[in-house]
Structures are given as structure tokens and as C-alpha cells.
Amino acid sequence: MMKPPKSYYDAEFGQIIIEDNHWTLAQYAVLGDRRVPICVDFEQGQVGELSSLQREAIRQALALPPNVLRITAPLVLQNYDVYREMIGDESMPLLANPVQVWDQVTFSYIYVPPHVEYDLDIATFKLIAECDWDSEHGLEVRFRNGVADDADQIGEIGW
Length: 159
Fold this sequence. Notes:
By secondary structure, the protein is of the alpha+beta class. It contains two helices and eight strands; from the N terminus they run ββββααββββ. Strands 1-2-3-4-5-6-7-8 form an eight-stranded mixed sheet, with helices on one face.
């Protein structure tokens, strides 16, 4: 019986390896001063099979602008504020500047799903993270065409 591959070399993105049960690019996305791994699920589970939309999503993740945290902060702050109001936790401070919300977030990885399998017609990826205000459920921020359009607990945002 043949062992499944543990790495794959892609002509555009270079080495992709199995790391913690995720196919992970050797290249990283940069968010502010932090490097974030990019994980993919290949189309139809076929190693090396990336759709054109997956490739576009990876390119967008690799090319996030230097001010991406400032641009996406209001969306994430909205999630923070909803949670703060829901639990009525006065220990969660009001944040004067939306970008301060990122001080309470630890990035885990960017996930690029199989677009054909999920019937996606827009280049899509999610930033998966841990956050201080909801340590049980974490945070995900969905990007479509390179722009953040939703933030919620992990598993609560559709594709």
C-alpha cells in the first residue's frame, strides 16, 4: 500500500506540506507585523488540485495590503461589541480605536476551501483566530475577492 504524500510542489506557490493535518503553503500571508500560515483543502481531495478561484484566493491572501488590519477592524469590533453587550461583561473595555480589537486576537491560519466542492463562484478565504472575548469559539473573518465582509464565531459564517 502506498503512503499518502506529505508534500506537494506547486509551480505557482511552491512547497505545500501537511502540517497539523492541514495542507499548508511554505509562503505566509502578512497581517500587520504578523506572518500567518495559509492552509488549503485541495479540490475533490486530490493532492495538487487547486481551482482557478482557489488560486486567486491564495494570491489575494498573499497580497493583503499593509493596512488590512485597520481596514477590517470595524468588522471585527462589531463582533466584539455584540459579544460584550450579549454577556454584559463590563470587564470587556470599550475600545476607543477600532484597531485596538486586534490586540485581543491571536491569528491561527488563513483557510482556503475547495471552491468547486463548496459551490463558490467568488475567490474566498477565512482568517481563523483565537480571541480573548470568546476563547471557546474563537473568531473567523471571511474575505471575498480580498475584502473582509463578515466576522463571527468559528463555524457561524457560511461561505
